[in-house]
Amino acid sequence: MIIDTHLHLIDRSALRYPWLAGVPALNRDFSYEDYATEAQRVGIGRVLHMEVDVDAADIEAETARVEGLSRQPGSMLAGVIASCRPEEGDFAAYLERQRANPFIRGFRRVLHVVPDELSEGAVFRDSIKRLGGTGLTFDLVVLPHQIPRAIVLADLAPDVTFVLDHCGVPDIKGKSEHPWREHISDIARRPNVMAKISGVVAYADAGSWTVETLRPYVEHTINSFGWDRVVWGSDWPVCTLGGGLSTWVAATQALLEGCSIGERDRLLSGNARKLWRLD
Asked: Candidates 3.10.180.10, 3.30.420.10, 3.20.20.140, 3.30.9.10; correct CATH number of 2-275?
């Protein structure tokens, strides 16, 4: 069984997504039902929903909506990585409310679309430190040149587990490996950081990429972090920009050819099960 640690659901009738106006290909609804039909065909059995950068006023409503879907018979939804605003003074109160809900497995604040200085603020950093001892993770979504800022956060909160999304968002389409490659090696030296092998097809040329196009980026990430510190995610529906869910699963299986059964199991389900207590 594959555990998908990075599913986005979009329902514009229920929630507001300010960023969608700038991404026409994704500016429509993407339902759980549509995802589940394809996911079950390719061997996905459990799923974590990843926040979709909704309007700040809709953050808790997004979590409630996904939790409601998880109660439907046969639902694969096992938890959420919720949105948060660590830069705001009311984060401590927000955190206490979320800690009371076992459906919440961690948090994310999208950082690649905000000023770099946001994560350098004292309030932001103090908020991240508050996650220590909670068992809640923090996903990092940053561009390659921002990875050093992610490293600073990881060093400031060594008892918090961070998850670097999408192999650090390499510029695969531009065939650029530097400074991404060096930064991945650097952040991987932090034992409290894991890497998510997720949706990198979205960063390749949709019309021409092959498994070999992806291989240098995926293999360098896995080699840097090791098999015990990687998890898998689809990044659906963003992955549809580069081929879709089934295509990304097939590419993943091809990339894992030659790996041991234990290595495959750790990446595709075992590490996620342990990290987010999904037993």
From this structure: 3.20.20.140
